[in-house]
Amino acid sequence: MKVSLEIIVRSTEIDVNGHVNNAKYLEYLEWGREEWYDTAGLHYEVLKELGVQTVTVNININYRKECRQGDKLTIVTVPEKIGRTSFVLKQELYNQHQELCADAAVTIVTIGVESRKSSEVPEGLRKLFA
């Protein structure tokens, strides 16, 4: 399931170099993942009913092109691979010229709500990777 989210770069997201601060890219990607969860109907309460929560454990990001105030960005999120207790979402961030500005592989682990330890990815989430 491929999900896209469009945003506009605000003045508060710019650093002293006149472009988006590197930490903001991580925030943009988080917004894209939340959009993916929402589109999939995997709201917090739904995951809780499945007995799990999800925790980001690794983000491998490549900064490709600077973004500036007023740029219209599209954050694309797609499922890449799934394991027994974890999965990877691939994310790409494009500007209004369809230029790739950043890409990332985000590893997420499912944990038991009560145990707080890694837990098998439930079928309701696993099916999104088929």
Question: How would you summarize the topology of this molecule?
Answer:
Elements: E1 3-8, H1 22-39, H2 44-49, E2 52-63, E3 72-82, E4 86-94, E5 100-112, H3 123-126
Antiparallel strand pairs: 1-3, 2-5, 3-4, 4-5
Query: So what's the oligomer here?
Result: single chain
Overall helicity: 10-25%
Mean pLDDT: 96
The major sheet is characterized as: 5 strands, antiparallel
Distance, first to last CA: 9 Å
Q: Which architecture would the CATH scheme give at its second level?
A: Roll
What's the CATH H-level superfamily name?
Hotdog Thioesterase
Beta content comes to: 35-45%
Tell me, what is the CATH class?
Alpha Beta
Tally of alpha and pi helices:
3
Question: Within the CATH hierarchy, at the fold level, what is the topology?
Answer: Thiol Ester Dehydrase, Chain A
Unreliable runs? none
Q: Give the neighbour order of strands across the main sheet.
A: 1-3-4-5-2
- Strand-and-helix sequence, N→C? EHHEEEEH
Could you characterize what this model shows?
The protein is of the alpha+beta class and 130 residues long. It has one domain (3-129): Thiol Ester Dehydrase, Chain A. It has 3 helices and 5 strands. It has a 5-stranded antiparallel sheet. β4 and β5 form a beta hairpin. The chain is elongated and about 45 Å long. The model has no long low-confidence stretch (mean pLDDT 96).
Structure, briefly:
Pfam families: 4HBT_2. The protein is α+β, with helices and mostly antiparallel strands and 130 residues long.
